[in-house]
Amino acid sequence: MKRLDGKVVMVFGAGSSGPGWGNGKAAAVAFAREGARVVAIDLDADAVAQTVGAIESEGYQALAVTADVTDSASVVAAVDKTMTAHGRIDVLHNNVGVTTMGGPPDLDEAAWQRSLDINVGSVYRTTRAIIPHMIEQGSGVIINISSLASIRWSGYPYFAYYASKAAVNQATVAIALQYARNGIRANAILPGAIDTPLIYKQISSQYKSVEEMREARNRAIPTGKMGTAWDIAYAAVFLASDEASFITGVCLPVDGGQSCSLGMSQ
Predict the structure, then answer these.
(1) What CATH number has the domain bearing residue 172?
(2) Residue 235: which of 211, 253, 218 has the closest Cα?
(3) What is the pLDDT of residues 236-259, one digit of tens each?
(4) Per the domain annotation, does 3 fall within a domain?
């Protein structure tokens, strides 16, 4: 028997931002491999179609949904499609996030608000739409993808990202404790330096070259190498499963020991 047999898992941010494996895409595939009925959701229809294609190529089924996590009506519509298709929601996996470079003097109001709206607003809108269904069924798991930057200075000048991801951590704790007696668990995963397509779009500008970025990020990890999207996906599968039934309110670094060291990413 697989660990998530029969579970319905909604993955927001299931599309990869480029060729290869992003955290959301890997999580969606990992959930499907463990027997879950996956609803893959992303703003980019092509990206989410690729994720569903990867799932189907392995003989599993998934539902592709396009939605915008900054729009409550769009999120509710995605939830309604899931309930129509499956009648329940067992796991909510929030993987949406954006990095915006700059300290407070460098950010205009629009950039600041956009970071909050995407990084922590997505958690608000998805949990607002889904928690009532979990309360009604008496069970549910919420997994929020935060960042090591929520608890450590990473070396990058992205004030809005630090602040918004820190908010995700405490929002996760608040949900976990408020709804514990309703059978709902909530945990956050804090990825460290992970080698995903996202870093080549949003982080590489901080270095002279892609090679320099890879070397610096690998050097910052005690194990000597960046993690992969699968490291995050496997942690998510565990937290979604009944094996983690006594784990809630945890903010779990998945970082090769980086959070235990003084090493910086630059």
Answers:
(1) 3.40.50.720
(2) 253
(3) 999 999 999 999 999 999 999 999
(4) no
Secondary structure element (H or E) that encloses residue 251, with its range:
strand 251-254
Query: From CA 23, how far away is CA 51, in angstroms rounded?
Result: 11
- Structural domain of residue 90, as residue ranges? 8-198+230-252
CB atoms within 10 A of CB 257: 12
Residue 13, φ and ψ in degrees, nearest 5: 85, 40
Q: Which amino acid is at 145?
A: I
Structure tokens at 7: 């579970």
Q: Is residue 59 part of a domain?
A: yes
Task: Bin 260: left if φ > 0, else alpha if -120 < ψ < 50, else beta.
Answer: alpha
pLDDT digits (tens, 9 = 90+) for 27-48: 999 999 999 999 999 999 999 9
Would you name the residues annotated as active-site residues? 161
In a domain, 164, yes or no: yes
Q: Decide if 204 is inside a domain.
A: no
